[in-house]
Fold this protein.
Amino acid sequence: MATLDDLLEKTSRTFALSIPMLPEPTRRHVGIAYLLFRIADTFEDAALWPRDRRVAALGDLETLLRGEGAPEARAAGWLVDLPVTHAGYVELLRETPYVLEAYRSMPVAAREALRHDLTRTVAGMQDVVRRGDERGNLRLASIRELRDYCYVVAGIVGEMLTSLFLIDRPELAPVAARLRRRSRFFGEGLQLVNILKDRASDATEGRVYLPPGVEPRAVFDVARSDLDRAAEYVAALQGAGAPEGFVAFTASPAILARASLDRIEERGPGAKITRDEVGSLMAAMFERLERGQTPFP
């Protein structure tokens, strides 16, 4: 049987590297949360399934989170005809009963916070899928629709992570409101960077997230504003004396997103920072943290 770390490694190299930065028990809680959100993402993006099948599978997941239904039977049903070709995602779907067992072992407060936010995400994803055509093609018509989409798939994740941080570290209560106000924009900023990077390939697959008539410059501006909020979020954690792992875990995606946004702006869709650049950025971040400085350059 796979372990949580195995599944993380096979579904996201980025999170497999960043989640271990967190101290326990938050590391385990966030790992379980990531895998459950990844299952939901897999159903939303299930290009090999028709629209109604995606909506139904998302509903299955919500049922299982309530403790109803048989996980083994649901997982077997999902794999009768595969929703995706990604081997890691397929293995994750197969191991859903194991992930749900880990979810049920979480402390009540953390489990309920995760269930509340994942249920909201599932409902939002069902709405997104229903808005597309039968083949899954989706076109957003305005900046408002784009931001609403980003909230469903990423903003709620930021809110969920903040809830887990506050549950596991009650000493962060003095900055709770500051963190909560910025959490959705943190998630939105990261998602917008991905949308800008992948906008050409997404369009060829029928997903047009950038609204017609809206200049990419406007979306770049929103993303930069959101990443400024992300830096404020990290500063609040650091100023409140959060463990270094909390600061590193939250700062690292924001630092990489800033660098990626600059590269996309310079070279266009599809541009990426290199693995060596990622390594250099992370090494510099840890050096700054060791000196007691802000993690941002």
